[in-house]
Amino acid sequence: MSHQLINRSPQLLRLRNEGYNLSVNGAHLLVSDVPYVNVTREVQKGMLIFPLDLAADIAMVPPDHTAYFSGDTPCDSQGQPLVSIINNSEKRELMPGLIAHHYFSAKPRSGAYTDYYEKVTLYVAMLSGHAQVIDSDLTAQTYSPVEAVEEESAFVYTDTASSRAGIAAQTEKFRGLKIALVGLGGTGAYILDQVAKMPVKQIHLYDGDTLHQHNAFRYPGAVPLSTLKLALKKVDYLYETYSQLHRGIVSHPCMITAENVGQLEGYDYVFLSVDRADVRALVVNQLKGSSASIIDVGMGVHIVNDTQKIWGVCRVTALTKSHHDHGIRTLPLSENAGPDDYRSNIQIADLNALNAMLAVGMWKRLCGFYADNTDALHSTYVTNLNELGNSEVRNAS
């Protein structure tokens, strides 16, 4: 992906052809072997780091005038720090293993950089110019050999949202995970919409149902009428849609049964979005003692007869290898004989989406992406109270 992105971007390819040592890490452009002077007037080589703004994996106009730098404090030829461009010198991990020691802010005379070629060459000049006072032969144009090795990416195109927001290092916590989504109704589809935007390795979709017209009103986005006429399986429609973003999506057009439930033991996380208690019980019992964590969602929706208003509750329960038994107490593992208006065709896509977001939030806390002061493994949201409650604390004695 790094070489392809550079080759597709004329301004980046020009820099490489002129001898600059370029690479791409996530959505960061790295310029290595940049000469600079440190506080003892020694010449060193550092690395400039620029967040990339991309369109179809082609570098566009830089979003601002800032840059990161990995190395000692850069100075002028007399060893005085370049305070004119150093905004702060706080160490920051931009990506795993990609450390910035300084944050620069330097506007060109025009007020804005027109492209990355201008930005890179001007920033390099600000640093290397002082080194060249000491040694005129120094240059950042080293024509370093380019290795013909492509980095693996979970995405069809580069995730520039994480680098732009400065959360690329946190997002990397999801890399390599294998995820299963069991049940791709309204809630499951919204879960997929979010998980597909994380750099997980694989996302396996399990559902044997056909995509019908009423499903379209509970799905993210807009399902075309021409697609509904094809009577596709839900997993096949979602594969076609989300594989345009994520490379690791695999469709399984089948329900989970006693014959195939063992497949779920091979995943890191299993999102369970089913309305059948027997399937839920099958999965919960099968995965007990395995390394797979379950994130189960459930909804209860009723019409309040005297007001004709809808009352609903969204539930998310997580079961991990070390905290599994609370599922017996909190999960509906047998059929409820009482009325449940959710099983009629009441349109509650907002609750589907909310339930999915609560589940994704639970998953991200378990992965260490979000700070978590509760350690809760069971959450419920009730519409009439507009409140979210937590229970089943992981660190409880």
Task: Give structural notes.
The protein has an 8-stranded mixed β-sheet with strand order 13-12-11-14-15-16-17-18, with helices on both faces. The protein has 397 residues and is α+β, with helices and mostly antiparallel strands. Strand 17 (376-382) and strand 18 (387-393) form a beta hairpin. It folds into 2 domains: 2-154, no CATH class; 176-393, NAD(P)-binding Rossmann-like Domain (Rossmann fold), CATH 3.40.50.720. The protein has helices spanning 2-8, 10-17, 116-134, 160-165, 168-171, 186-195, 213-216, 225-228, 234-242, 277-287, 326-330, 349-366, and strands at 21-25, 28-37, 43-51, 54-55, 58-59, 66-70, 86-88, 92-95, 98-100, 102-105, 178-182, 202-206, 249-252, 269-272, 293-304, 309-319, 376-382, 387-393. The protein is elongated, with a radius of gyration of 26 Å.
Q: Which labels suit this protein?
A:
alpha+beta; 26% strand; Rossmann fold; 12 helices; 397 residues; 2 domains; 6-stranded antiparallel beta sheet; single chain
Question: How is this structure best summarized?
Answer:
This protein is an alpha+beta fold. The chain has 12 helices and 18 strands.
